[in-house]
């Protein structure tokens, strides 16, 4: 979508960007067994050096994307600051995924919806085509789905166990507003969200039905009182569906002139008609509208609430993760550091031979054993 603005998820992506792989790779080579270097064990899961390097490469790509104008030295400084927490974040992810599974959380329907959003974003005609592309890239498709499932499980756990316990009072919001009024002097802007019905890869004969679907979704919001965000989450084909269709904040100059003319003529809560684009049918809703100048409190209250929520989220997350660590068994190989360690026993490496390869229960298959305590 030409006007789409990537938005970060307020909880998960801030803390755990692209750190969803917590697996070991074991390869058979002639008659011997080649085992990845294990850097940490988190209960019954392991984190390998390859996992760490993959996360490091992903982090470097993110830093370069976010700071395209940075000098090499500036990028290096940012990487060094974040690199020290890579193992911590992988351990965090493992702990959260394990706890979500222990709690019996289910996200199967959300996994299918996320896969379909990825398919739409990459302009692929079917989920089978998505599977083919993932396989062509060298990644196992089941692993790909498992990573998405783990991400969604973690998000759901965080909402349930952490987010639901964070309270931002009106007094907190009012205090922040009075102390930061200069932040709320702004040009004319709108906050937009969308419902998008894709026609990509669809036969001509299907277009009337797809247009009828888009008209029906708009009618449900307009005449039945259905929530726009909920409709977007359930029926939109855009990747923004996972965030209730949220597109972000826009000034007139940031939008196509025709679209700007339509949305800036609307008030809060109003929608455009169904608009035809090259790739589908689009409905935009003005979630909030700000006139130029200092914004009144009632206009910016949701924004301040979200900001204060985020400020409380990170320390709350670290407290929750500390609790998970205290309830878990975490081992770290000497030479590696978990910057959030509560208690950790170092991994003692042992030789791996084909004869020992059937010792799955003891951990020798993966080349690790708990370090013996003195006197035992």
What does this entry look like structurally?
A 5-stranded mixed sheet has the order 4-3-11-12-13. Helices cover 45% and strands 16% of the residues. The N and C termini lie far apart (64 Å). It is built from 12 helices and 13 strands. A hairpin with a 2-residue loop joins strand 3 (38-42) and strand 4 (45-48). It folds into 3 domains: 1-102 and 329-376, no CATH class; 103-161, no CATH class; 188-291, Chitinase A, domain 3 (Roll), CATH 3.10.50.40. The model is unreliable at 1-34 and 350-376 (pLDDT under 50). The protein is α+β, with helices and mostly antiparallel strands and 376 residues long.
End-to-end Cα distance:
64 Å
- Rg from alpha-carbon coordinates: 24 Å
Number of domains: 3
Main beta sheet strand tally, sense and closure: 5 strands, mixed
Approximate helicity band: 40-55%
Low-confidence stretches: 1-34, 350-376
- Count of distinct strands: 13
Mean pLDDT: 82
Shape: globular
Could you give the order of the helices and strands?
Answer: HEEEEHHHHHHHEEHHEHEEEHEEE
How much of the sequence is in beta strands? Answer: 15-25%
Q: Could you give the order of strands across the largest sheet?
A: 4-3-11-12-13
